[in-house]
Every structure is written in structure tokens, then in C-alpha cells.
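To fix ideas, we quote verbatim a fold written out as C-alpha cells:
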Amino acid sequence: MGNLRDGTNLALCTNRQVNSKFCHVGVTRGLITDCTLSTATKERTYAFPLYLSVDSDSLLHRESRRLNLSPGFLVHVATALRLKQAGEHGLPAGLTPEDIFHYAYAVFHSPG
């Protein structure tokens, strides 16, 4: 949870195991509990942060971060969108990490 403690990161929240139809996806900038999305016993909530902390020396120290999107995933996104990869992380040209995060969240909530 150290990746979310300063409130500047984004994380997708979801459950690994559900007792009914899959429908639990949320977003947070802060810390979560295991029952943030559901109070059912098996439906523990997990957070998948957009950025991962590189060091964790102190609670007060601003940490350096690295993107939590694999290079292979970014290749697939760039190929699907027919965009060249550019920039520090090899992101598809013209897109930010937050753009990809917002798109993924929208897909999880699309009706089909």
C-alpha cells in the first residue's frame, strides 16, 4: 500500500474471486481495506497502482516512481492504435499513462 500513501497515484481496485457476476472495479488515490468493494468473505479487494514506488525510505520523503505498465503491454497498445512508441516509457505517441488507465477503467464499465 506504500504506492498509494501520498494521494497522488491512481489504482484500479478489483476482486480476484467473486461469488456472483463480476462487477467490482473501482478507482482510488488513497489506501483501501480488504472489503472496500465487497463485504463478502471471499471477495477481498486488491489495488493495482499506475505507478510503483522505487524507494520507501520514509513516510515523509517524496518517492521516485516507475510506471506499472509492462513494455510488452505498451507495444500491444501502440500496435492496436497504429501509433509509434515515444517518450520515456515507450508509451504510444500522444498518450499519457493516465490516458491508458482511464481507458482501461472505461472498458471495465462498458456494457458489452
